[in-house]
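User: My instructor asked us to take a sequence, write out its structure as C-alpha cells, and then describe one feature of it. I'm not sure where to start. Here is the sequence I was given:
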Amino acid sequence: MTDARLEAATAIARDAGALALRHFRDIGALDIQSKGTQDLVSNADLEVETFIRARIADGFPDDGILGEEHAPKASVSGWTWVIDPIDGTANFVSGIPQWCVILALVLDGKTRIGVIYDPVSDELFHAAEGQGAYVNGTRLGVARTEGLHQGSVGVGMNGKTPSAMAPRMVAMLAEEGGIFFRNASGGLMLAYVAAGRLIGYTEPHMNAWDCMAGQLMVAEAGGRIEAQDCTDMMAHGGRVVAASPDVFDQLVRLSDAAYTA
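Assistant: Let's start with the prediction itself. The C-alpha cells for your sequence are:
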C-alpha cells in the first residue's frame, strides 16, 4: 500500500498547497494569533490542516493522523500521517515566499514516505523508503564536499531550547570556515540538504511534523541523519542533524558542543 499512499500524499500536498497559496496571495485577510514566542498560527494553517485531514479520511479512513494544529487521531491500520499544513508560518503571514506543506507517513516505527511541497516555487519533493528522493520527478543527491568550508549549513532555532544555542552554533560554524543559512522553514532546509543546495542542517529541537519527511529525504538522497526513536520523536520532538556524509560527523561534533544548556 506504500505506492497508493505515496500517490495520495503527493496529490494531497499539491492541493493543500494550492489552497494555502490562495491565502498567501490575500494575506491582508488572514486572522493571525500567537501560540507563544515566535510561534504563530493563522486561519490558513487551520483550514489547510482540516482540508488535509478530510482527504486522508476519505482515502484512508483507518489511518492515524498527527498534526500541528488539531488533536491526534489514533491509527487502526498501523499507518500514521504526520502533517504540518504550513511550515514557516512566520514567513507566510509576513509575505515571505519561503514556506511549505509537509506530509510524512509512518508505519511500524519508521518513516516510510515523505512529501514537502513549496507552492510558491512549485517544487514538490518526495521520498519513499528504499526508492530514493526526488523533486518534480528528478532524482536528488546530497552535495559532495571536502568540509564545512565548502557549502552552507542550515541552522534552525526555536522557542523550546535556550536562545544561546543557535548563535553559539553559528559562531562555531564560522570558526570552521562555514557559512550558515536560515529561511525559517526547517522542512524546506532539510529538502535543500537532500537536493544538495545545503551541505547540512542542524537544530536543537524540532517537532515531528517539521522534520520527519525531510529526514527521510536526506537519507534517501545519500545523506546521513541522526538515529532517533520514531515514537518518541512523534510524542516529544528532538534534536535534528542531517548532512552530506562528508561533513556529518563534523556537524554532529559542533552540535554536541553548541547545544549545551
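For the description part of your assignment, you could build on this observation: The two ends are 44 Å apart (CA to CA). Try explaining in your own words what that tells you about the chain.
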